[in-house]
């Protein structure tokens, strides 16, 4: 199963960055990937909760939280999504690197439907994911550093 990993260091506490990442009102402010999202069974993140997301590109997906360990790790798996994917899962990890610094790691794993042309289609998907993941993680870093550090909210 192909997977893509990106990470960055953030000048803010891991628990604060985790909280911002799971605040869905804030998420619509900082996340360049998302156009819209909403919970479909309950409100707020947690194991078993499902969230529908719509990307700015128009792609839609429903994902379910399979891991929720505040303030260090969240994991989701695709329940329903783009026809090209057989499976899709993502984890976001938040690791303290001192009192006011953290490492954020995004990892996406996926398999494509048989009618695609692996390994070429996997390489293309990996490239697209890596590009989009870098934009997202950098947007989260900027948002967290502006909102959670000196000169921001903290």
Overview of this structure, please?
- This protein has 154 residues and is an alpha+beta fold.
- The chain has a single domain (3-30, 69-148), classed as Alpha-D-Glucose-1,6-Bisphosphate, Chain A, domain 4 (2-Layer Sandwich), CATH 3.30.530.
- The protein contains 3 helices and 7 strands.
- It has a 7-stranded antiparallel sheet with strand order 1-7-6-5-4-3-2.
- Helix 1 crosses helix 3 (120-148).
- The longest helix has 29 residues, at 120-148.
Keywords:
154 residues; alpha+beta; Alpha-D-Glucose-1,6-Bisphosphate, Chain A, domain 4; 7 strands; 29% helix
For this structure, the CATH topology is Alpha-D-Glucose-1,6-Bisphosphate, Chain A, domain 4
Helix content: 25-40%
Q: What would you say the CATH architecture is?
A: 2-Layer Sandwich
| CATH homologous superfamily (4th level) name | START domain
Q: What would CATH call the class?
A: Alpha Beta
- The overall pLDDT, averaged over residues, is 91
- Quantity of strands, as a count: 7
**Gap from first CA to last CA:** 41 Å
* Biggest β-sheet strands, sense, barrel: 7 strands, antiparallel
Shape category:
globular
What value does the Rg take, in angstroms?
16 Å
Low-confidence stretches: none
SSE topology string: EHHEEEEEEH
Can you tell me the number of structural domains? 1
Write the layout of secondary structure elements.
Layout: E1 3-10, H1 14-21, H2 24-30, E2 34-39, E3 50-55, E4 60-69, E5 73-80, E6 85-96, E7 102-112, H3 120-148
Antiparallel strand pairs: 1-7, 2-3, 3-4, 4-5, 5-6, 6-7
Helix pairs in contact: 1-3
């Amino acid at each position: 199963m192909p997977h893509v990993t990106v990470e960055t260091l953030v000048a803010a506490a891991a628990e604060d960055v985790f909280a911002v990442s799971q605040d869905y009102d804030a998420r619509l402010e900082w996340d360049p990937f998302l156009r819209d999202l909403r919970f479909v069974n309950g409100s707020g993140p947690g194991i078993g909760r499902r969230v529908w997301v719509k990307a700015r590109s128009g792609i839609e997906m429903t994902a379910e939280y399979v891991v929720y360990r505040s303030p260090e790790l969240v994991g989701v798996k695709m329940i329903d999504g783009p026809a090209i994917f057989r499976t899709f899962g993502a984890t976001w990890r938040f690791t303290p690197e001192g009192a006011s610094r953290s490492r954020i790691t995004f990892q996406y794993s996926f398999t494509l439907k048989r009618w695609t042309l692996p390994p070429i289609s996997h390489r293309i998907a990996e490239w697209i994911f890596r590009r989009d993941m870098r934009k997202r993680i950098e947007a989260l870093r900027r948002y967290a550093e502006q909102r959670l550090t000196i000169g921001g909210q903290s």
